[in-house]
Write a sequence for this structure.
């Protein structure tokens, strides 16, 4: 019926959806704001888990303030330090704060993604045993940072889209 009328509409089970319905959920908040909230919450959770014994291995004897000398690992894979846990917490707070508007949520996701891609490149070029590895970084962290960078940028671009076609 809609195609016969010459109008191209998105549909859900045959029910046409307007651009507003696709970009704003039932809470009335834009999708990109919800995505930024979720990403921020995950970073906050990661910050907390970085201090939880069992989730973080070698926590008591391996967690350092900063640098690569510690051997504490989140989930047994990702090197962590007090500094890194604090950074994750700040990233989470920033995500929650910036999720208030669509524009700032987009900035958080895309800007945060770019920062993670820079951190990925930094992790690739430094000697992981040198003092330049103050974050600390290992190979698992590098892969994670690549995924976070690409993922956050993609979420910022895709979840902020609205359909400009008329309904």
């Amino acid at each position: 019926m809609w195609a016969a009328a010459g109008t191209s509409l998105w549909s859900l089970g045959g029910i046409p959806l307007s651009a507003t319905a696709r970009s704003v959920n039932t809470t009335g908040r834009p999708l990109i704001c919800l995505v930024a909230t979720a990403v921020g919450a995950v970073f906050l959770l990661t910050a907390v888990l970085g201090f939880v014994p069992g989730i973080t291995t070698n926590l008591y004897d391996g967690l350092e303030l900063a640098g690569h000398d510690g051997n504490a690992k989140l989930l047994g894979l990702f090197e962590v330090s007090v500094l890194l846990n604090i950074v994750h917490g700040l990233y989470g707070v920033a995500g929650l704060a910036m999720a208030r508007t669509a524009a700032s949520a987009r900035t958080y996701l895309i800007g945060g993604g770019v920062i993670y891609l820079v951190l990925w490149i930094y992790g690739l070029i430094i000697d992981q045993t040198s003092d330049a590895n103050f974050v600390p970084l290992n190979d698992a962290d590098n892969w994670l940072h690549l995924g976070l960078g690409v993922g956050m940028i993609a979420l910022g671009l895709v979840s902020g889209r609205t359909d400009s076609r008329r309904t």
Q: What stands out?
A: The first helix runs from residue 19 to 23. DSSP finds six helices and five strands in the chain. The chain has a mean pLDDT of 85. The two ends are 13 Å apart (CA to CA).
